[in-house]
Amino acid sequence: MSPVNRVGAETGECGTVCGGRLAAGCGGKMMDGHRESAPLRLMACPDWVYLLREFDILYRDGSDGGSRAIRSHRKRVRDALARVVEGNPDMAGRQAAAKPVTAHLGRALDIGERGAVQGLARALSRVSGQLTWEYGYEKVPKALAEKYAYCEVLGPRGPVLSERLILGFVLFAPKTTYPQHSHREIEESYVSVSGSWSENDAAVYAPGSLILNRPGHEHRITTADLAPCLLAYAWVGPPDMLSTPGMKLTAPRRARMAEGI
């Protein structure tokens, strides 16, 4: 049994903690009549532990389709996640934040909870009020700002702290085009949680599908017309690149010149 699959039985008895704060009456010590909160650690946050367990299941039990590259990537994600969980890291207190597209999150989770990745969708719904949704780009096209956002659940900025792995979710409104982009020195995979989408017009991917993007690979995403699209993602790469990925959309001229896009 992997460390991620064991941790559910090892969580603290305080099941209402998270969001970077210690729940009243849980842990800490008394100072001048007031409770001083000890640093909150992963094992004290069952909902976050269960979310990471679902990521482990996703990257352990899903098919690699016979691809050696995908098989190796999945193992890298699992191994990095296991090391994080074994270390019982501190939880970083991040302020919850919404974007316009998060108005579609409820529908995306409803669809996901009936689909192939329902365990992950349900686990995400338990922490949905604590998520920090953001754009990641200094300049975001106005149309995209209304229809896209992502949140990290594990990474250098938390809420679960890790230097060598980022796990998170990307949410798209219906009928969205996410412009061409790439990630230098970062290997990325997307797994469909709900909704249908296409990358580089190559195929249509349904819930449960995994797509691997090698470092530097240019890719563009489009989503279906009638339902939001929720993707889980994993980034593996050097710690310095994960902490400051320098996200940039590809310049329009370069994007037009890219082969096959």
UniProtKB/TrEMBL annotation:
State whether keyword Lyase applies: yes
Mind listing the UniProt keywords for this protein, alphabetically? Lyase
Q: Which domain of life is it from?
A: Bacteria
Q: Which SUPFAM superfamilies match?
A: RmlC-like cupins (SSF51182)
Q: Name the Pfam families on file.
A: DMSP_lyase (PF16867)
| GO MF term list | dimethylpropiothetin dethiomethylase activity
Q: Mind telling me which InterPro entries this protein's record contains?
A: DMSP_lyase, RmlC-like_jellyroll, RmlC_Cupin_sf
- What protein am I looking at? Dimethlysulfonioproprionate lyase DddL
Species per Swiss-Prot/TrEMBL record: Primorskyibacter flagellatus
What taxonomic ancestry is recorded?
Bacteria, Pseudomonadati, Pseudomonadota, Alphaproteobacteria, Rhodobacterales
